[in-house]
């Protein structure tokens, strides 16, 4: 993981094309970079605070940072597994839908932590804008596959309770269920 602590590449920090942003390698590298930066930061904080507070006190002092690191690690594992599942999906149509959702997940998470990437010049301002714009576009595109994605889980209408998931006269049925 130490290779991700190297200085960000000033060329790739500016690449903003859709092919690049939807490339699983870029997405996974960004997630790993974030996790490695957090790990480095937590290690320095623990070392600093353990001198005055002891190991238990340092751990407690750094708990929020440790939780952020844990969340970042889990998100990286989720993305890696998601990318692998998309790659292994045998059905072309299903693979396209899964790729869309996977890209949306990755870009949305990168956008939510854009400050982390911007503070170290991992993502240039133009790339940050492109990430946000593409995430919004993909959010809009998900509506085209939303029904198929929900149907894949075979959830009955009464479980989902969302008008978009209901079959007939969805809004009237929904309002009756919630008591209007």
Short synopsis of the structure:
With 180 residues, this protein is mostly helical. It is built from nine helices and no strands. It starts with 17 loop residues before the first helix and ends with a helix.
Defining key terms:
Butyryl-CoA Dehydrogenase, subunit A, domain 3; 2 domains; mainly alpha; 0% strand; 9 helices; 180 residues
Report, as a whole number of angstroms, the end-to-end distance: 55 Å
Using only CA atoms, what is the Rg? 21 Å
Q: Provide the CATH top-level class of the largest domain.
A: Mainly Alpha
Main sheet record? none
Strand content: under 5%
Give the number of domains: 2
* Average predicted confidence as pLDDT: 83
Q: List the uncertain runs.
A: none
How many β strands by DSSP?
0
Written as H for each helix and E for each strand, in order along the chain, the element string is HHHHHHHHH
Under CATH, the topology of the largest domain can be stated as Butyryl-CoA Dehydrogenase, subunit A, domain 3
Percent helix, as a range, is over 70%
Q: Tell me, briefly, the overall form.
A: globular
Number of helices: 9
